[in-house]
Fold this sequence. Notes:
The protein is 11% helix and 48% strand. By secondary structure, the protein is mainly beta. The protein folds into two domains: 137 residues, Immunoglobulin-like (Sandwich); 131 residues, no CATH class. A hairpin with a 5-residue loop joins strand 19 and strand 20. The longest helix has 18 residues.
Amino acid sequence: xxxxxxxxxxxxxxxxxxxxxxxxxxxxxxxxxxxxxxxxxxxxxxxxxxxxxxxxxxxxxxxxxxxxxxxxxxxxxxxxxxxxxxxxxxxxxxxxxxxxxxxxxxxxxxxxxxxxxxxxxxxxxxxxxxxxxxxxxxxxxxxxxxxxxxxxxxxxxxxxxxxxxxxxxxxxxxxxxxxxxxxxxxxxxxxxxxxxxxxxxxxxxxxxxxxxxxxxxxxxxxxxxxxxxxxxxxxxxxxxxxxxxxxxxxxxxxxxxxxxxxxxxxxxxxxxxxxxxxxxxxxxxxxxxx
Length: 290
């Protein structure tokens, strides 16, 4: 190799190093442990060190933000579909973040251990990509607590399976709702209902509108009642306190309706107002009579 070729190669390498140094990028996962099927949120943070405004955007062929997700075995996880992320404008010296749900873009419905990193293409440089750190996460199936198959209102050929799943992650016991398509077996939606205290068994049933009702103990004195439809939408969420005759109950009536009995509905707004009044009273100076 000639001296001139070596010199040219050195210049190119220095130029590439300078280009990569124009931005700093990192990736973090707010949660490391996930229930298989729930959203896996990744937060990509980019700092602009170029000294000028940078506009990151896809050109229709190459996207400016991409992810590499791998299984513990080293095999790459297949994407669901090709996604072009919206543009991001970052001023000189500014730091901005983009939050992405990896479960929307990759086949992540199965349990296992995974790694993820992001690749950012710099504006105007289709061959200059900056890779972030790798982050680790795992997915477990959880423990199925209750399930029920139901028909879909207005669609006689469709069915769903409601599942209530108990999951322990990050030292907390949590309860999830999961909706599965009866024909394909594909997950429609998996989402967190809240932290749960298993000192009392969660109560589960289905009403005449084919909606799932779940009521569970969230704190030593608070019960949470959730209503979920067959599309996986959270229709209603209410908090109840223990009634005069013991724990709240989910009762199914003859017409198929479901109601909460023996409870005192909890009003967060009214409770906040009561706390504010208590603070104001305690803030009054004491009067000493001599």
